[in-house]
Fold these 4 entries.
Entry 1:
Amino acid sequence: MGGHSIRWTATVWKTLCPFWGEEYQVHLPPTFHTVAFYVMDEDALSQDDVIGKVCFTRDTLASHPKGFSGWAHLTEVDPNEEVQGEIHLRLEVVPGPRAPRLRCSVLEARGLAPKDRNGASDPFVRVRYNGRTQETSIVKKSCYPRWNETFEFELEEGAAETLCVEAWDWDLVSRNDFLGKVVVSVQRLWAARLEEGWFRLQPDQAKRRRHEGNLGSLQLEVRLRDETVLPSSCYQPLVQLLCQEVTLGAQGPGQLIPIIEETTTTECRQDVATNLLKLFLGQGLAKDFLDLLFQLELGRTSEA
C-alpha cells in the first residue's frame, strides 16, 4: 500500500480454502492511490509464488463510506502492471537551428516500486520519441532517485504525436524490470510550450491480461477512514471538558461520558475507549477515568 505500508498474514498450510480472520489498521500517506492484497504461496526452499491480487483504488474505497465487505475475484499479477510512484518532468518546446526542438528534463522520481531483494531499485529512465531513444544514468539502490538530466528531440513535420518516458529497474544478470511510464501529447506541448510537474507512472496497458475468476476469490472487509489532525490548541476546550468530567466524577456521574457512550456504535466503542484512555494517561488522570467507568458500570449492575 503506497509502496511502503506492508502487512503479512499467517501462512495457512496445505489448503485451497484458507481462513485467516485477521484484522489490520494501516496508516496510509495522503498521496496513496491504491490498496492491494496479494495472495502468496509460501515455498520453504524457493521464492514464494504470487497466486493473484485484489486492488482497490482510493476512489473505490471513498465510494463505500461504510466500507467494502464481500468476495473479490483475484486477478493475475502482471509485472508490467506492478507500478507505483511519480516522476518529475519539465517539458518544453524550444527553438532549434533547423526546426523547433522538444526538450525533456528528467528531474527526479518518488515512491518507485522496490524490485530488488534489498527493498529498493536501481532506476533509470528511457525517453522515446519519433524512433529515437535516450537514457539517463542509473541510480543505485533508491526508490527516490534524482537525475536532473535533459534530452532534446527535433520536432519535424509529420513526427510522432506522443513522447514516452519509461522508468526501469536495472539488473546486471537478469532482465530489467519495468517501473512504469508516462505518455505525453506533443500537440498539447505545442500549445502550452512549457509543462512541468509530477506525473503518475502508469502500467503498460498493451500487455494487460486478465484471468478474473479463475484464480479464486478473497473475502475482505475494507474501510477507509480519513483523519485530519488539527493544531493541539484546537482540541484544548474539549480536553478541558473531558478532564473536568473525570475530576468531578467522584461527586456523581456527569453527562459527557454517557453521551459519548450512547452516540457511538458498538464497532467503534473500543476505539473511543482506547483513545480516551490515552488522553487521560497524558493528563495524569488515567486512574480517575477508570474509576469513573467502574462507577458507571456498577450503577447499571445495581439497577439491574
Entry 2:
Amino acid sequence: MAKKYAELSIYAPKITSEDYKRTFDMLTKKHIPLLEAIDLSRAFSFRGVEFVIKRYNNTIKMFIKDKDNIYGQSALMFPFRINDPAPLELSKSKFSLGTKVVGGTNFFNFLIKENVEEIRIRVIKFFGIYYGFGNFVDYGGRRGMLALTNPMKFLEIDLENNPLFYIELLDPIPKAVYLESPNPVLVSDSARIGVNNFDVFQHGIIVGTSGSGKSKFIQILIKAVLQKYKDVRIVVVDPHGEFAKYFPDAKIIDFRNNYVEPFDVGTGKSPLITQLVAQLITSTIAQESKYAERVVFYSVHLLADINDLNLENINLLLTDSSKRMEFTAMSQNDEVKRFFDKEFQDIYMHHFNDAILPVTNFIGEYMLYLGKAKHLEDLGKIVQNERLTIVSFNPHFFGRRIIKFFAGAIVNQMYMMAISEKLKMQTMLIVDEFPTVETKVVKDILAETRKFNLYTYAAAQYLGQLSKEVLDALISNARNIFAFRVTKEDARLLSSMMDIKVEEFFKRSVSPSELDASKREMFVKLHTRECIARLYDGKKYIIPMITRTVDTQDWINVDLGIKHDPYTGEKTYFKGRGPLE
C-alpha cells in the first residue's frame, strides 16, 4: 500500500533558505514530556522531515510525508500550504548509481544535470545544523544515494531564474476572522457564518455567473432569515420561476392563476405615482424616443388625474379619438388638455411609428397574457400577512418584456409601501436576475428605503449589465456583498469595493499592481459554492473572506415558522419578536 504524502503548494515564485529553515524548525520542534521547557530539537532531530520532489516533464510537484497531523499545521507553514494527505506512488528503481554529495546548488540544476525524475530526502538536525540524506531516481529507473550539506539551499525556489520548470502558484490568502454560528449559511476554515453574525437588514448584492452557487445560497439565506426572525417579511421577485418549487408553503403570485394590478401604487394624485408608472412603461417598451416618453407621461398623468389609470384606458386614449376627447374633458389640468388638443395630433401624424405604435403593441401583448379572468391580489395585504411571498414567472410562458413590466410593477409597489410607511415589519426584497427587471426607481429604493424597513438584495449574473446610475447606487448603498465566481470585468469592480486584506508575506514579495491583479483573480477562480463575502455587522465591515455555502441539505428540514391548520389547511404564523426557538 502506498504511503501517504501531503502535496506542498507554494504562494510565491521565490522561496528562500530562511523560509525553509523556519518551516523545518516548526516541524521538528519536540518537547520532553513533563519537561516542556526542555527542547532538544534545537540541537538534534533524527526523525526529521521527509520530502519528495517529483518531476513530470517540466512540471514540478513537492510532497511531504504525513505524520503528527501535519495537515492540521498548514496555517502555520506560510508561504507553504499543506494539502490533504493522499497515497503517493513512488518511482520504481534499482540501485545502479553512486552517491552524490551536493552543497551549494539547487534542485533545479540537479534535475537537469542528472536527468532526475524523483528525489526523496529526509532532513534532520545534528548539533543545530540541518543535513539531508536520501536518494534520487533518474528517467532510466536507476537510483543513487544523495547527501545534502545545505538542504535549505538545495530546496530554494526561484521560478524567475528557472523558466524551464513550472510550479503552480496559489493565489494570495485573504486574512480571515473567527466567527461562530449555530446555524451557518457560509463556512471557511476559521468561520461558521450565520445571519446572527452580520446585519442582514441592509441592502445587499448577490452576484455570480451561472452554476456558481448563487441561487442555492439565496435559498439558504431565505430559510436562515425566516428561522432567526419572527417578525420579518421576505418578497422574492423570481423572473426565472426557480424558487417557488423550493418553498411550497410560501405565498405564490404567478400572474397566471393570480395577479397584482400593475398600477396599484397608492391612492391620490401624487406626481411621484405618475413618474413611477410612466418610467415603468417607457423602460419596458425600451423605446428611446422623446416623443414616446412625452406621450406616455401625459397619458399617465391624465388618467391618474381622473382616477381611471390602467393600460386598457391608455390604449383607448391613444387610439380612439372620441374616448380621448371624453378623458380630456374630465381633466382639470390645462397643460394636459393643451398637450392632447395640439401637440399630440402632431406626434400622431408624424411620429406614430416610434411614439404611439410601441406603446399600443405592448398593451396588446399585455392583454394577451391577462385576457382571461384571474384572481386579483392586494400586494399590501399579502406582505402584511405572509412571511414569504414569491412573485414567480414562467419564462416559457411569458415574454421577457412582460416579465420586466410585471416585476417592475412589484418593485414600484414595494417602494411606495415603504415611503408611505406601510411596512410595519422589517422587509427584505430579493430581486433575482436583477438586470432583467431593472427600473430607474431602484436607485431611489437603495437611497431612501432603509429607514422605512425595506432592504433590497439585488442578485445578478453580471453587474456590468446594469445601467451606470443603478450600478452607482448599488455601489454606494449595498453593505452586504456575496460574490461568487464572476467575470473579469465584474471582478475588477468588486475588488475595488472590497478592502481585501492579505498576509503580509504577499505585500513584501510582489508589487502593488501584481497584488491588485491577484485580488481580482480571486473572484474569477472561485469554485462552485465558494464566495467572497463582505459583511456589515451593524457598526463596521467585517473583513472580506473566502467562504463556501453550506450544503442545502443542512437546511432542508428547517421550520420556517409557517404552519397549516390541520382542519382548514390555512396558514398560521408565529407572533411576537425575537428568534425562533
Entry 3:
Amino acid sequence: MNPTTIKGLAAASVAGSGAGGYGIYYGVNSSRTVSKEIKEPLLTNSSTDEAWKQHLASYKSLQDKWLGDVSDESSWVGSMKKWCNDSLNTYWSNSKFSELSKKAGKWCVDTEDIKGRVKRTMGQGKSLISDTNTETVWKSGWDTYNSGKSGKEISIISATTQELGWKELKSFCLETESLHASSHETLKERYKDFCTK
C-alpha cells in the first residue's frame, strides 16, 4: 500500500473517531436540563406562594427588574413560576443553557429555613424568641404555649409546669429553626405560633 493511501486511511480513522466521540458526548448531555444542574431544593408549581416569595425582597432591590415591576405580588409569583418552569426544563442544547442555569440557581431554589421564613412572614410588632432572650421571656412563651396548645401540641414537650416546660419549649425552638421550611410545614407553623412574641 502506498504512503498516500495509508495517510488517507489514518486521517479518515481519526475523523471517524472524533465524530463518534462527539456523538457519545452529545448523547450523554442531550438529556441534561437546567434542573439537573442545580443541587439545592427547587421551587415547584406545588410550592406555596409563601415559599416563592422568599426571593421577592431581593428581586425588588434589583435595578434591572427583568421579570417586570412588582405592583402585584401575586402576579409576580405567577410570572416567576412560569419563568422557572420554562427555564428548569431547558435542555443542554439550548444556547442559553449556562446563563439560565446560573440565573435559575438563584431564583428557582427553595433554601429558606424555618427561622428565616417565620421572620419574613410574621408581620409587624412580632419578633422571634431567641437563644439570647431571658428565662422570663421563655417562661412567657411557655405560658402562651400551655394556654393555646389545643390541637397544636408539640410532641417533644411533655412538661405540665412552667418550671420545666420553658426549657422544653426553648429546645424545640432552637432545634427547629434551622430545618428546611417547605419540608416541615407543621413544625414551621408551631414555631410561628410559639417561638415568637
Entry 4:
Amino acid sequence: MGLILLIAFIATPIVEITIFIEAGDRFGLWPTLGAIILTAIIGAGLLRWQGLVTWRRAAESLQRGVFPVNEVFTGLCLIGAGALLLTPGFLTDAIGFALFVPSVQQLIAHLTKKAIERGHGPKVWVNGQPMDPRESVIDGEYETQKKPAPPDLELPAGSPNPNSPWNKRP
C-alpha cells in the first residue's frame, strides 16, 4: 500500500504537467488557465452544496438515534474531493468530480468494506508483533499473593533524647 501511494505521489505531478503542456499547446495558455480556475470554482460550489446536504442527513440520522455511517463515509469522500479539486490539474479535478457521484462513493465504500473484511484494514502492533483483533482470548496463569504486614511503627521503649535538636523549642 505504501509503495502504491509513493508511486501515485510521484506520478501524479508528472501526468498533470504533461496534461498542462498538451492542453496549452492545443487550446492556448488563457483557456487552459481559465479551465483550471473554472473547475476550482465549480468544485467549491459543489463541495459546499453536497457538504450541507450530507450534514443535514447526518443530523437527521442522529435525531432518529441511528449512527450516520453512510453520511460519514460520504463526508470523507467529499473531503477527498475537496482536496483533489484544490490541487491544480485536470486529472485530480476529474477524480475529485467523480467522488461527488453517489455510485462512485458506493463503489468505494463496497471495496473498502471488502478490504477490511479480508484483513487488509488497519493493523495494530503490540510489542513489535502484529495483533489480530479477532483474537480476544489471552491465555495465562495467575496466583494470589498476600501482601506482607507493614512493619510495626511504635517508638522504642524509653524516653526521647533530651539533647536532640528536634526537642528544643524556640
